[in-house]
UniProtKB/TrEMBL annotation:
Keywords: ATP-binding, Nucleotide-binding, Transport. One of its GO terms (cellular component) is ATP-binding cassette (ABC) transporter complex. Belongs to the ABC transporter superfamily. It comes from the Bacteria. This is ABC transporter ATP-binding protein. The keyword Transport applies. SMART domains: AAA (SM00382). Residues 4-235 form the ABC transporter domain. The lineage of its organism: Bacteria, Pseudomonadati, Thermodesulfobacteriota, Desulfobulbia, Desulfobulbales. It holds the Pfam family ABC_tran.
Length: 239
């Protein structure tokens, strides 16, 4: 059974060309998928649809093979599929790091003390305990990014959706992120424009072509990046 899937899903932003047209896709628990593709092709949109933050124009999102429509049904998915947004600040809105990391567990119904203990354990497991007492808004960009990941992992999701997690990370923090990911017992989809990062963290790949989600093998991914040595070429979606 797929953890989540798209069933002939179509999506268009108002007054724009379609991003997805009857896209079909399924994610099995434990898969480690690298998601690459040009700017503006719809990668972030795919994550927002999975999380129920955007509504399809047609078709369905299924969680463990059950179609989701209502908000409370998406909540069950969001409990198990942790989304880390492209902009860490969109996800951190408390005064202190510990409060930010405890927020998810509290929201899942844990008692304050247990949620705080969970937050402390998560920060510790990620080697970020030294940040626990810091004011979130005073963190560096890279620190914020790792704290946003900690905030998601504190909910102990079964899968992760990471949107360009290496943005703001210097080589040391990138290495740290790779070490953190390698220790996790879960699968993920990682959106990235960084070939080396995808190569180190993922075992299968996907992209978007003609409003469809397409799985790719390593050599197709390699060729994509190889033919655009400076990264993905811009994709003018509305042309
Ligand atoms: N809120 C919105 N309203 C209208 N159009 C939008 C909105 N958000 C995104 N788009 C457009 O939808 C298309 C897909 O955007 P999306 O952010 O999903 O692409 P992406 O593949 O994640 O890009 P990038 O690699 O640059 O992050 C783009 O053409 C974008 O301009």
């Amino acid at each position: 059974m797929a953890l989540f899937s798209l069933n002939r899903l179509s999506f268009t932003y108002p007054q724009a060309k379609p991003v997805f047209a009857e896209a079909v896709f399924s994610f099995q628990e434990g898969e480690r998928l690298g998601f690459y593709g040009p700017n503006g092709s719809g990668k972030s949109t795919f994550f927002l649809l999975i999380a129920g933050l955007l509504k399809p124009v047609a078709g369905q999102i299924c969680f463990r093979d059950r179609p989701l429509t209502r908000e409370h049904e998406f909540r069950a998915l969001r409990k198990e599929v942790g989304l880390v947004l492209q902009n860490a600040e969109d996800q951190l809105f408390h005064a202190s790091v510990l409060e930010d990391v405890a927020f998810g567990p509290l929201n899942l119904g844990m008692k304050p003390k247990a949620a705080q203990a969970r937050a402390e354990e998560t920060l510790e497991a990620l080697g970020l305990s030294h940040l626990a007492g810091r004011l979130t808004h005073q963190l560096s960009g890279g620190e914020k990014r790792l704290v946003a990941l900690a905030a998601t992992l504190a909910m102990q999701p079964r899968a992760l959706l990471l949107d360009e997690p290496t943005n703001d990370l210097d080589p040391t923090y990138q290495k740290k992120l790779i070490q953190i990911l390698q220790k996790l017992p879960v699968g993920w989809i990682i959106i990235s424009h960084d070939f080396n990062f995808l190569q180190k963290t993922c075992t299968a790949f996907m992209t978007i072509a003609r409003q469809q989600l397409v799985r790719c093998n390593y050599s197709q991914m390699h060729q994509h990046f190889h033919s655009h040595p400076l990264g993905d070429t811009p994709h003018h979606h509305n042309e």
